[in-house]
Amino acid sequence: MKVESLARIDLNLLVSLQVLLEEQSCTRAAERLHLSQSAMSKTLARLRDVFQDPLLVRNAHGMLPTPHAEQLRDPLQIALQHVSKLLDPPSFNPNVSRRHFTLTSIDSAYQLFLPSYFGPLLSKAPNIELDYRPWNAQSAHMLTQGQIELGITVKENVSNVPWKSTVELPTNLHSQPLKDDYMVCLVRRDHPALAKKSRWNLKTYLKSGHVQAYCEGKYKWMLDFILADQGYERIIAAKVPEFQAALTIIQHSDLIFTGPKQFATYAKQHYPLVELPLPLELPTITYLLTWHERFDEDPGHQWLRQMLVEYINPELSVAC
């Protein structure tokens, strides 16, 4: 199909032809289209010129379609129905939708939030497909390009600093806060630090070995930069690709893992670990739901965002 050829045709003529074929009368067609008799006659003349056919010819009872017009009847009606659907407002029915959503999430959010919403989400939309990707250094760019539709990342609530431990989101990405959190420490149940709880302080923390999970290809984050500003540095004995690997390591070693409080609560339910306070004042973090502005008014995307907020943070859903 050469779309360029359609530019030479007034597509309103096709609507007029449809009404003429239905009414088989210029007078009645003019009334339906709120045109004068003269304007309708001129429209029929233009149609005859476009199709190089009389299309409708007079007889004793009105006008009869030519064989060519009869051939046009069904495809014309189908074409106009498709055009009409293009003009309908977008809609989304979760009960029957087979839409594919691509999401990305930082590791801790995946562990924390997925169990709370995955089941209810699929119970409301049993035929949708969710494709999860780990958040990495390219995720923000992929969100802007439409390769990923929705992401969950973390914002560190700190400003006026000369360093950035996380990538700033592009301005065309919109976001909604999900939950605030703060940092704590996790150790195994018989960790030496627990035998000397009264001596659990920054000095003990810094003398111990640590395991750190990579985020966006980096293992240093806000904690390490704040320590460096104060002239300190952690002993990072192990660097792993994900939080789950860090949990496995600390339950079999004397290493310490520093992570979000909510993730620590999850970890203690599944691993023989103990939580200790972080012996250092640190700004809070906020989990963010983020997406490209092109999806702001998309009904399916709006539904998915609403569902995630509802199940991740019901209080926030009620407040909205």
Automatic annotation (TrEMBL):
Higher taxonomy: Bacteria, Pseudomonadati, Pseudomonadota, Gammaproteobacteria, Oceanospirillales
Entry keyword DNA-binding: yes
Record keywords: DNA-binding, Transcription, Transcription regulation
Species of the source: Spartinivicinus marinus
Gene Ontology molecular function, alphabetical: DNA binding; DNA-binding transcription factor activity
Record's protein name: LysR family transcriptional regulator
Domain HTH lysR-type, first and last residues per copy: 9-66
Membrane among keywords: no
Entry's family note: Belongs to the LysR transcriptional regulatory family.
